[in-house]
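Study this pair:
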Amino acid sequence: MKKVATKITEKIIQHKIIAESDKDIYLYGFWQGIVFIINMIGVLIVGLILDMLWQSIVFTLVYGCLRIFAGGYHARTQKNCYILSLILIIAALSIIKYVHWNELLCVVSSIFSGLVIFVLAPVEDENKRLDEQEKIVYKKRARIIFLLLSFISMISLITGQLHITVCFTISILASAIMVILGKMKNVSVRSKN
C-alpha cells in the first residue's frame, strides 16, 4: 500500500501537479485513501458473504461517525488494525443476524453505550494524544453524535423498523466497547511505565 501511495505521489510531482515540498502531505493522504478503500472493500465482501450488505454499510457508517470522536482501542499496526476491523464487522453482523433482538434489549444496550460514551469518551491513543481543548471538543461531539444516532435509532424503533434499530444499536455498542478497551489499554500502559 505504501509503495502504491509513493508511486502516485512521485508521478504527480513529476507532472508538476504538486510541489516536492508537499510530498509528505500527499503521500500520507494517498496512503490513508488506499487504506480506506481496502477497508471498505473488506466490509463489502464480508457483507456480501453474510448476505448482509446494507447492514455492513450502515454498521460501518454509524460506528465510524461515533468512533472518530469517542476514540478507543487502536491496534499498533495497520495490518493488525485491518484484521481487527474485519473481526469486528464479522462479529457485529453475526450478533445482528443470530441474536434475537427485541425493543428492551436495544434500549438497555443504548443506555449502557450512552453511559460509557458520556463518562469515558474521548479515549485517546498513545499514537494520537489529545490536548485539553481537543478533549473538550471531542467529548462534546461524541455526545452530540451519540444522541443523534440514538434519536434515529429510537425513531426506527417507534416506527416498527427493529432491524434498523438493531443495526444502529450494535454500531453504537461496538464503539462503546472500543472506548472501554481503549481506556483499559491506557491504564495498563500507564501502570507499566
The two ends are 34 Å apart (CA to CA). The chain has seven helices and no strands.
